[in-house]
Amino acid sequence: MADYSFVIGYPTESHRIELDLQDETQLSEFTMRWIRQDLQRSDSAPMDTENRLIFVKHEQSTRLSINPDGLSGSPVFSIVHDQLKDRHLRFEGIVTNARDDRFAVLPSAHIRPMLDGIVDGN
Fold first, then answer.
1. Residues of the chain scoring pLDDT < 70
2. CATH of the domain at 24
3. pTM for this one?
4. The total number of structural domains that make up the chain
């Protein structure tokens, strides 16, 4: 069981735009800002994508809910501990789709064979 899970990504709404004061048709800065959202595992529900791990915003999270647009492909990690209470970072998978505070994650166990196939040239 995970002690803490989270997603890191660049949602569409997390950008900062500054216009050039000399020429308002030009940008002086456009920065996409990353976010971290606290997550917890959830059971599958109707309309969830099949064969995915389901995460929801953690019930004790103090972070604001976000529009998940742009988070597809974002990694989801968990901090877990072993029998000796040593903590490790586990790659859970990548977000394939989300709605509101609910994230469908392609498990890392399915990603590894795809990467191995690419490396092997298949």
1. 27-28, 122
2. 2.40.10
3. 0.83
4. 1
